């Protein structure tokens, strides 16, 4: 069996969902990132995705279809949602498996990353900027697909609100979600 080939460019798809998120649906996922969860992400095996959210499942299936990934090679996804408002931004970063990076500075990344703009109300700013200078404007029901380790930033929100779902699609379970990793943290 051949290994999945990640996308080598950035793909922007408008009208990504035929039935976009309602405020209630995206707000429910946003609320999962709080102080109690240590602002962590949700790890889902690919079998668990439909039980988490039918919209997340649709985004997952649409994404792998658009880039031609073999679903049999995918083990699961990290997913989370953000609400950005006036003054919020993210510095240049890569979405990586953080545990091996912290321990060894070895970088591992997902085979596919994506940002789905669920709701952009009166938004100015909040756009994605990739390290090669590619700039993608935030727009409701737009999805941006890219190789999971691609460095990117979010420019400052100057007005309005930006709600987005973020997903990293993995071909192996990130170390931080493995049982042996949890045990190692306490030694």
Provide tags for this entry.
single chain; 187 residues; alpha+beta; Jelly Rolls; six-stranded antiparallel β-sheet; four-stranded antiparallel β-sheet; 10 strands; 31% strand; disordered C terminus
Helices and strands, with pairings:
Blueprint: E1 11-13, H1 23-30, E2 42-45, H2 49-52, H3 54-67, E3 76-84, E4 90-93, H4 98-104, E5 112-124, E6 128-130, E7 135-136, E8 142-146, E9 152-154, E10 159-170, H5 179-185
Antiparallel strand pairs: 1-8, 2-3, 3-10, 4-9, 5-8, 5-10, 6-7, 6-9
Can you describe this structure?
This protein has 187 residues and is of the alpha+beta class. The chain has a single domain, classed as q2cbj1_9rhob like domain (Jelly Rolls, Sandwich). It is built from 5 helices and 10 strands, in the order βαβααββαββββββα. The protein has helices spanning 23-30, 49-52, 54-67, 98-104, 179-185; strands spanning 11-13, 42-45, 76-84, 90-93, 112-124, 128-130, 135-136, 142-146, 152-154, 159-170. It has a 6-stranded antiparallel β-sheet with strand order 1-8-5-10-3-2, covered by helices on one side. Strand 6 and strand 7 form a beta hairpin.
